[in-house]
Design brief:
It catalyses: RX + glutathione = an S-substituted glutathione + a halide anion + H(+). The chain is about 50% helix and about 10% strand. It has about 240 residues and is of the alpha/beta class. The chain folds into 2 domains: about 30-105, Glutaredoxin; about 120-235, Glutathione S-transferase Yfyf (Class Pi), Chain A, domain 2 (Up-down Bundle), CATH 1.20.1050. A 5-stranded mixed beta sheet has the order 1-3-2-4-5, with helices on one face. β4 and β5 form a beta hairpin. α1 runs parallel beside α3. It is globular.
Length: about 240
């Protein structure tokens, strides 16, 4: 078992491999998940953007740690990730966790949700919905077939990949139109709506689907900006 300690974005992340570790996590934000998990990466990127100290406790899915009684008390569906805040508050679902962290620690690090103007806030909610409705399921489907299925010893269904790629390409054509008049999905400010794309977008590139970004000039420019942020580079270095 590896050692564990609380960390910040400028320090190496220590991990523990069992949620029943005797390490005292009081006063520390604790993330339960796996660094290879896109949903876990989403939270880690948010924490690092906010400049918050945290500890990653690895949940071994193969060993069934996600189904242990102690973990199910944190995440009753038995999936990753989950998070314990410094005051003992527990929350799960990666997008909900990221929003919670931004609201709880609004004055820390990068502002990731605009405030003070109902129209600007509405445009953020619109952009966040775009990611969930027009990117996530298609990108996740491609990545599942081309990466995760192979990791489990299976073969990808390339007909399914082709169908998902076609639909995602149509959606990214609309992204390109949106990004032709603004720098980011919610306007001219980097927000969680952009950050949420990073884990699956990076895996698309890893499995040879980079043309989806590269062939659309405004999408390409946007992707290059968000994927080279220091917080995301730090997450990738942890993998």
């Amino acid at each position: 078992m590896g050692c564990s300690s609380s960390v910040s974005s400028s320090q190496p992340v220590h991990r523990t491999n069992n949620i029943q570790s005797s390490y005292d996590t009081r006063g520390t934000i604790v993330v339960y998940g796996m660094i290879q998990s896109p949903a876990t990466q989403r939270i880690l990127a948010t924490l690092i953007e906010k400049g918050l100290k945290f500890q990653l406790k690895v949940i071994n899915l193969k060993a069934g740690e996600n189904l242990s009684r102690s973990y199910l008390e944190k995440q009753p569906f038995g999936t990753i990730p989950a998070l314990d805040d410094v005051d003992g508050f527990t929350i799960y679902e990666s997008r909900a966790i990221s929003r919670y962290l931004e609201m709880k620690y609004k004055d820390k690090g990068t502002e990731l949700i605009p405030k003070g103007n109902i129209k600007v806030e509405g445009l953020f909610e619109q952009a966040a919905s775009i990611e969930l409705s027009y990117f996530d399921s298609y990108a996740n489907g491609i990545v599942t077939e081309r990466i995760f299925k192979k990791m489990r010893g299976g073969e990808p269904d390339m007909n399914k990949v082709a169908e998902l790629r076609r639909d995602l390409a149509k959606n990214l054509d609309v992204y390109d139109q949106i990004l032709s008049t603004q720098s980011y999905l919610a306007g001219n400010m980097f927000t969680l709506a952009d950050l949420f794309h990073l884990p699956l977008g990076s895996l698309l590139l890893k499995c040879g689907e980079g043309e989806l970004f590269e062939s659309r000039s405004h999408v390409k420019q946007w992707w290059n900006k968000i994927s080279t942020r220091q917080a995301w580079k730090t997450v990738q270095a942890m993998a």
